[in-house]
């Protein structure tokens, strides 16, 4: 029951954070932001033991590190790069997490799965094709990051065909929100400014983390 309480607290704090972000209260938002992911970490900590629990906690920890580092992104490019590395590691742990949660059974609906894979490849191609000329010295790290998040989405897609216990395929939805958040951040930084970018980035990001955590906890809940 404790984990459900902290999930509820996370949602409440996220709504508050998004409210102050929408009204451009940046100083308050900077103070609140580092406390959001730890609430999810506590929710996972108090959940029942399951074999991928440590992997989920590690992914959340590196996401939190990325959150904190990016608070200083306006002080120099090095902070953006370090934040990118932290989230890259987080996504790698999410890939391992999703892969370990999948079962060995084959995917029955190969047509729709193939279409999903095609959309992921299309996303990657459009993302790199559009941003590539604008990246300069950051071309290689951004391309690597795009490969990793696309791979993360692939494993979430693959798992969604086997995780029938999770309502509404929340892990896949979370992965889509995560890519949306990263994409908005990238386009806002490298292509052109996006109106209310901070709000949109954090809206999709907070939903992503909640959807993935809720889905993984539900998947591993003892029935």
TrEMBL record:
Keyword Transmembrane: yes
Keyword set includes Cytoplasm: no
Main location: membrane
Superkingdom assignment: Bacteria
Compartments in which it is found: Membrane
Topology relative to the membrane: Multi-pass membrane protein
Residue stretches spanning the membrane: 7-25, 31-48, 55-73, 79-99, 111-132, 138-157, 169-191, 197-217
Pfam families the UniProt entry points to: YhhN
InterPro entries: TMEM86B-like (IPR012506)
Entry keyword set: Membrane, Transmembrane, Transmembrane helix
Family membership: Belongs to the TMEM86 family.
PANTHER family xrefs: GH04784P (PTHR31885)
Protein name: Lysoplasmalogenase
Organism: Flavobacterium keumense
């Amino acid at each position: 029951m404790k984990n459900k309480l902290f999930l509820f607290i996370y949602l409440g704090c996220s709504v508050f954070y998004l409210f102050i972000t929408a009204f451009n209260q940046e100083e308050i938002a900077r103070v609140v932001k580092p406390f959001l992911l730890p609430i999810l970490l506590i929710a996972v900590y108090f959940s029942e033991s399951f074999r991928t629990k440590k992997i989920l906690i590690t992914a959340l920890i590196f996401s939190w590190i990325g959150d904190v580092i990016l608070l200083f992104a306006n002080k120099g490019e090095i902070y953006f790069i370090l934040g990118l590395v932290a989230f890259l590691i987080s996504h790698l742990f999410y890939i391992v997490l999703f892969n370990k949660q999948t079962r060995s059974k084959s995917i029955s609906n190969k047509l729709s799965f193939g279409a999903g894979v095609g959309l992921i490849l299309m996303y990657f191609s459009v993302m790199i094709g559009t941003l590539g000329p604008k990246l300069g010295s950051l071309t290689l790290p951004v391309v690597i990051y795009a490969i990793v998040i696309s791979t993360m989405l692939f494993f979430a897609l693959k798992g969604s065909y086997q995780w029938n216990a999770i309502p509404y395929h929340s892990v896949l939805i979370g992965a889509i929100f995560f890519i949306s958040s990263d994409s908005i951040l990238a386009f806002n930084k490298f292509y052109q400014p996006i109106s209310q970018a901070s709000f949109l980035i954090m809206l999709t990001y907070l939903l992503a983390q909640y959807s993935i955590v809720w889905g993984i906890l539900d998947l591993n809940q003892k029935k």
